[in-house]
Amino acid sequence: MTVKTESGASASSATRASGKGSGRPGTAEQLSRADRVARGKDARAVTPLESHAEFAPDGPRDPVGLLLGQAKSRVPELVPVRHGRMLVSPFTFYRGAALPMAADLATTPASGLRVQLCGDAHLSNFGAFASPERRLVFDVNDFDESLPGPFEWDVKRLAASLAVAGRDNGFPAKARRKIVLAAAEGYRTAMRGFAGQPLLEVWYAHLDIEQAIGEFQSQMKAKRFKKAEALLAKAHTKDSTLALRKLTTIDDGQRRIISDPPMIMPIEDVFADVQAGAIYQEIRTVLGKYRRTLQSDRRHLLEQFTLIQVARKVVGVGSVGTRAWILLMDAGDGTEPLFLQAKEAQPSVLAEFCGRSQYTNQGERVVAGQHLMQAESDIFLGWTRVPGPDKVNRDFYVRQLKDWKFSAPIELMIPSGMTVYASLCGWTLARAHARSGDRVALAAYLGGSDRFDQAIADFAETYADQNERDYTALQDAVRDGRAEATTEI
Fold it and tell me: Is 246 exposed, middle or buried (0-12, 13-18, 19+ CB in 10 A)?
């Protein structure tokens, strides 16, 4: 795979992965290269590569209890929607079960090599979006759970998601293993490549998705390649102007967000017992605080826009029930829209196992993790703290709602397509980890053979089995009344 840079250059079973530690992941850049290589090899002696195949919890598990525990801090009427979305398939369950898997990963062998983790690196949390230079780039795109921790946790979360998705798509075991191996090999070989590059080259590296798809053209049937090209072309139309047409209407001469409860509800409907004027005054105050987290030129740009309306929006699967708002803004006479999304940031599901964040504002934690892991981030990415009508302060991060966003249609993939996609995800995750962790030690740990890849493939299938059992447990909990689920129409 050719990847552009700005310069144009193409533990033993008893060792467990709590990995707790405060602050940033250590890069050990002050050590000599030989010392860093030795660090990686020493880690392999303690935690052999083959040990990453292991998954055998040594205590009781209650995945449903963990999910119900999360519900306590969420919007009560949306919790059944979350459970309903998780029950669509084992894969949608997996997407919402980041906390149960974090608890499981804490029981697995630990490499001791820490990076900034995505924390929820399943294959649907990778995608394409517009860079500030208006290129369509591919990267990790969800950082709600981002926190420093053992590098292999993200790799295992990605690998198991590929196995689960492959099962949902009806792929045979041999095809699923090939897919997972592509992701693990993509990660390992990319990390070894980054270990040989100067740090600035690693920092500037990015994956141009249109170029990458072109390079895989020989491996794709003509019909599939044309479909991929069409999907990427469609991504270029997904911006605030399209969102304006889909999400708003003209009512009494004014642009208004269309109400579609409970998925989208204007804030006046959510808080019907509070005067609208008071709500919007509070929102403008919050926007002022958020602006101060942006760099000066972007703050100036945002100040050209006027707030029109705010609505609550239900997003994702695992995020359902956390508070998410869309803000309609305009810089002209109703024809220069900007849609922002403010999403609640709660403590990472990894915090109990990897240590608390150094950031007191969870929105800042998400934004810092995103800046550290992504090659290029949204120009309006920032954070704030919002006092709610219940007088509880909640942390939020803010970004554009849509800006050329593209997510691969996982359910429509065939094995060869998912194999290509897995390889792209593996490379992307390695590049993200190489920015924050010690890429030289990581490369030395992973080595040149496929032993790590094979272990990860074994783990992925074992955990896919566990995911199916956990999915059934949630079904049972809904049937016996322990949990409530709503089927969306």
Answer: exposed
